[in-house]
Amino acid sequence: MTITQRLYHTYQRYRTLQTHTITALPIAILMPHSACNCRCVMCDIWKDNKNLKQLEEKDIEQLLLSFKKLGTQQVVMSGGEALLNPNFFRFCEMLSRQQIKVTLLSTGLTLKKNAEKILRYVNDVIVSLDGDAATHNHIRNIREAFEMLKEGVIYVKQLRPSFKITARTVIHKINFRQWPAIIDAAKEMGLNQISFLPADVSSHAFNRELLWSEQRQHEILPDANELPELKEMLKELFISRKKDFESGFIAESPAKLQKIYEYYAAFYGLNPFPFKQCNAPWVSAVVEADGTVRPCFFHEAIGNIRDNDLKAILNKEENVAFRKKLDVMNDVTCKKCVCYLQLAPGTKLN
Predict the structure, then answer these.
(1) How many CA atoms lie within 13 A of 268 on its CB side?
(2) Helix axes 133-140, 179-189, angle to 10 degrees
(3) Helix (H, G, I), strand (E, B) or coil at 133
(4) Are 171 and 42 a contacting pair, CB within 8 Å?
(5) Whose CA is closest to 145, among 219, 11, 36?
(6) 3 - beta bridge partners?
(7) d(CA 325, CA 11)
(8) Residues 6+ apart with CB under 8 A from 213
(9) What's phi and psi for 278, nearest 5 deg?
(10) How far apart are CA 188 and CA 20, in angstroms?
(11) Which DSSP string do the residues of 72-116 spell out, in sequence order?
(12) How many CA atoms lie within 13 A of 336 on its CB side?
């Protein structure tokens, strides 16, 4: 992208935020495959594996037309497990021809098997890491999931030491006591960075047709009497892992990690849900495996790319009105969101 193109794209991003009409879409999240190769305790995606849905090459061709108009710079391949789509690397090739960077979110179970193609077609990888070996395997409900993940990361790094692989950890009732061990495991694997977020227990995301019952929520939600222990764990981390915060190995600041405690405490009325800034519906869009489009993972569907092109969907009158009316600070869905994005117009993507 030339300097002139960058300036124009930045202007379009400003314009989008001011008018609520999408004229620039820096990031798109695609779900190439609806199934998953893990059975995580905090996620219901795998429960619908039998009802397979997946994006096809013609879907990507259609999306590329909108991406070009909107100056899309990065596509995040999410899931399910994106690598389960037999055409996954073909999709990556098509995107790379348009100078669109590809980030892969993965369980990591097949990193080693796909290492050479990942290095050829993917710009960076984010893996899920839930604890030490025993805890990770328990949460994933897959025997030797940790070992396969570690082997895959090490193998990719052997092939190309500079390739960026980071981890994302959902912190919850089952693994918060493992926090130091999770950081140690990330280092031992040779990961570049690790980030943390709380578990979503209150939305329809992650393939939940029905909202979780209170009993189901409390399988993941720390109990009220566990919150002091969680708070103390964070205090210890801020001291013992000071160098990891300073170096950026832990992606979040101590202040941002403290919000994980505040998020869980809010369920018991101990404090408000933590303040967050998010402009995801203005700077990104989610396309699911059946073509369904959402403004983010958590809000309702707004169209389908198999019925209309993405730019037209995003700028339908009712969808522009949705963005105009959306008050992120007070919207019920946004207040309880665990995964938010704040991207300023001038921000460069990795």
Answers:
(1) 14
(2) 100
(3) helix
(4) no
(5) 36
(6) none
(7) 23
(8) none
(9) -150, 135
(10) 45
(11) --EEEE-SS-GGGSTTHHHHHHHHHHTT-EEEEEE-STTTTTTHH
(12) 13
Whether residue 80 has a cis bond before it, omega within 30° of 0: yes
Distance between CA atoms of 240 and 250, rounded to whole angstroms? 12
Strand partners, 30: 77, 287
CA atoms within 13 A on the CB side of 174: 21
The Cα–Cα gap between 68 and 142 comes to: 40
Cα–Cα distance for residue pair 30/101, rounded to 1 Å? 13
Measure the CA dihedral 162/164/165/170, to 10°: 150
d(CA 286, CA 294): 5
Q: What is the pLDDT along the chain (350 residues), one digit of tens a residue?
A: 677 777 788 889 889 989 999 999 999 999 999 888 887 777 777 667 677 899 999 999 999 999 999 999 999 999 889 999 999 999 999 999 999 999 999 999 999 999 999 999 999 999 999 999 999 999 998 999 999 999 999 999 999 999 999 999 999 999 999 999 999 999 999 999 999 999 988 755 555 555 667 777 878 899 999 999 999 999 999 999 999 999 999 999 999 999 999 999 999 999 999 988 899 999 999 999 999 999 999 899 999 999 999 999 999 999 999 999 999 989 989 988 888 788 888 888 76
CA angle 347, 341, 336 (to 5 degrees): 160
Q: In one letter, which amino acid is 82?
A: A
Please give the model's pTM, rounded to 2 decimal places.
0.93
> Is residue 279 a contact partner of residue 17, using CB atoms and an 8 Å limit?
yes
